[in-house]
């Protein structure tokens, strides 16, 4: 799979998402993080918009299920991305074809759901996650960039917890159990946020998907 093809798919999805979801009236646009929303920013830069409130927010995803539940946080920015999503009236996902699961989360994204934790609680949370049925749960390491764990923008750590493939009707339930654990700040499950997804396909077409979600604002 060529990098060029993947980048083309990301750009296609991002441009289509902006073209169909941003109007010319005065509005603040929310943008998450990742390599796909870079193209959202590029397209937004071509439009003329003044800012009043977050009407629509755009973000990438690590995996998208058929209900538009998401796994996010591959780049450890899940808390701030969820903050933006929760402040938006409309949340739109942009992604290339590798992110669209045939059905369930955990199909392609095998690294586990990212969970932001308070640093002094991570050992406890790791144990809690195994009790909740995780196949694996590991503290994310910063890798070559620096010695030690990844530290988020909020000064916290990230645990990646693999629960296998998660049935569509179980994502919310699992998310609620995770968020109740003492030490957990936020999870990378985005349930009932995305109402639209734009997927750039390998053949240059775009798949757009819509679901209804409860109103946030
Ligand atoms: O959740 C994220 C960062 O925490 C990103 O949105 C997600 O990892 C997708 O990134 P990309 O568009 O680069 O594939």
Automatic annotation (TrEMBL):
SUPFAM superfamilies reported in the protein's UniProt record: D-ribose-5-phosphate isomerase (RpiA), lid domain, NagB/RpiA/CoA transferase-like
Pfam families: Rib_5-P_isom_A
Species classification: Eukaryota, Fungi, Dikarya, Ascomycota, Saccharomycotina
Alphabetized GO MF terms: ribose-5-phosphate isomerase activity
Protein name: Ribose-5-phosphate isomerase
Tagged with keyword Isomerase: yes
EC number: 5.3.1.6
GO biological process: D-ribose metabolic process; pentose-phosphate shunt, non-oxidative branch
